[in-house]
Amino acid sequence: MNIGQASKSTGVSERMIRHYERVGLMRPPDRRDNGYRDYSPQSVERLRFIANARHLGFSLEEIATLLGLWDDRERTSSEVKTVALAHAEDLGRKAAALEAMRRSLLELAEGCSGDSRPDCPILTGLAERRSC
What we know:
Number of domains: 2
Radius of gyration: 23 Å
Helix content: 55-70%
Oligomer: single chain
């Protein structure tokens, strides 16, 4: 299948498919006589794997690790689980940080009357030095 068909089949844009090839997540596909890329069913499956991993927030480095484990039939499931749990922990830290930012922003907004006056406690609060 050509790159357009692979893109439609996986939901991965043609641009991202080319990017994944450049960074080594995808092996270079075979080329047809006309020079067009020719994606095998295995390549499309790999693209789906990458797309699903990206949807779960895995970094390209983490996806490379997961793909390496996927390709390694000698790997243990505990190796895969370790990567997944480390990522889940990282997501938890990010979620906590986002929630702290949300609370801070709501506190700033709570102090703002939102009327026609130019005074704005939100802007004043953003200008203050805060310890992180």
